[in-house]
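Dock uracil; give full complex structure.
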Amino acid sequence: MNNRAKIIDGLKKAMEFYRELGFEYLPAKIEQKRSPLTPDPCPLPLNKDIALQALRDEIGDCTRCKLSRKRTNLVFGEGPHDAGIMFIGEGPGRDEDIQARPFVGEAGKLLTNLIVKLGLTREEVYIANIVKCRPPNNREPDEEEIATCMPFVERQAEIIKPGVIVSLGRISAQSLLGTRISISKIRGRFFDYKGIPLMPTFHPAYLLRNPKDKWLTWDDMKKVLEKLKGN
Ligand code: URA
């Protein structure tokens, strides 16, 4: 395809994309900061912003499952929409529920340190959870809650299309991969998640309780960096 044909093809795809989202007109261009590890340059960066905002609007003030009854805030996720790495945890805890931001408590501090050790900043990665509302008393989300919320994180991943997804902990890995295999058996190697390499690793909260296993997660993260560099 020559350059002109590529541009026309890109525009056609973008217009179809907007039409599916219910737009009748093309919105104006908005500047967007790019992450240094961006694997998937989007021909029209606005696409991802619009698609994620549309998803957020669709979730709305969600009451689809019983977690909504006790939550303070829904925690959608945060980060650049063209991030190279997307971390997916289990569900918000107490601090996240209060601040409406993922991984801002003790486990979040450990995750942030890990990100920095990778040579990145928190602002350069996307962070989300399997369920978007806090399970009371930090219990694990049940199957019904996970099934209700899964389509949203799936669509977040599809829109962001990061170079690598890192699933944090058993619930995240098992839910995304549709398996019941234990996290210690599946961590440390890549799986395919809808065309995106997915690396399961331990949950930061587990690492707080079992610091001796931090080096295993570090090993996993080194593989993630290699993958992003194309090795
Ligand atoms: N644990 C998670 O799984 N997600 C958060 O956002 C915080 C703690």
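Observed: Residues 75 and 132 are 5 Å apart (CA to CA).
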